[in-house]
Amino acid sequence: MSEDDGKATRKSAGGPRRNWRLYGITAVGFGLVCAVAAAVGQAARAHEGTAVNTPKYAVGPSGGTKLDLPDRPTVPVTLTVYEDPRSPQSREFAQRYADTFSRLLASGQLQINYRLVTQSDKQYGGSGAAEAAAAAACAQDQKRMVPFMEQIWQHQPAPAHDAFKDRKLLSDLAKKAGKINHDAFQLCVDRNERKGWVAESQSAFAAAGLGEVPVVRINGRPLPVPADRLTPGKLTSLVNAEARRVAAAAAP
Question: Of all residues in the chain, what percent carry a pLDDT higher than 90?
Answer without folding.
Answer: 69
